[in-house]
Amino acid sequence: MRHDELVSTDDASQYHAQVKQLVCDSFHLSPDALDVTTPFDELGLDSKQRVQLLATIEVFFEVTIDLDERERLTDIASTAGVLADALRAKSGAADSGQ
């Protein structure tokens, strides 16, 4: 089975733990202080920090994410969705030989 067949929007939940760990490590937060739906606004993350998170995800997962996607980074669950989309796009590009 190809990687892109494994990843679907519904499957974004498989990235929740990794994204949560990146958020906690990047912003020195306790994992106990947030769940997948805790709004980043409540954690005090501003747009600059969302750009930082986006860059961290790109490096960690070796994907490219459009800067406009930072608006979708509102909580762990939505960030995992952005990641799943980027991984799907990366896999599609690899499959087409790009």
List the helices and strands and how they pair.
Blueprint: H1 3-6, H2 16-27, H3 47-61, H4 76-95
Helix pairs in contact: 2-3, 2-4
Description:
By secondary structure, this protein is mainly α. The protein has one domain: ACP-like (Non-ribosomal Peptide Synthetase Peptidyl Carrier Protein, Chain A). The chain is built from four helices and no strands. The chain is globular. 26% of the residues are buried. The N terminus is likely disordered.
User: What's the CATH H-level homologous superfamily?
Assistant: ACP-like
Cα separation of the termini: 20 Å
**Per the principal axes of the C-alpha atoms, what is the gross shape?**
globular
- For the record, the count of structural domains works out to 1
Our estimate of the beta-strand percent is under 5%
Q: State the total count of DSSP E strands.
A: 0
Share of helix, binned:
40-55%
* pLDDT averaged residue by residue: 86
Helical/strand content category: mainly alpha
Number of helices: 4
What is the helix/strand order?
Answer: HHHH
The CATH topology label is Non-ribosomal Peptide Synthetase Peptidyl Carrier Protein, Chain A
Q: What's the architecture, going by CATH? A: Orthogonal Bundle
Largest sheet: none
CATH class: Mainly Alpha
Segments where pLDDT lies below 50 for 5+ residues? Answer: 1-9
| Rg for CA atoms | 13 Å
Pfam family, one: PP-binding
InterPro entries: ACP-like_sf, PP-bd_ACP
Domain Carrier: 10-87
Protein name: Carrier domain-containing protein
Give a summary of the structure in a few sentences.
The protein is mainly alpha-helical and 98 residues long. It is 52% helix and 0% strand. The chain has a single domain, classed as ACP-like (Non-ribosomal Peptide Synthetase Peptidyl Carrier Protein, Chain A), CATH 1.10.1200.
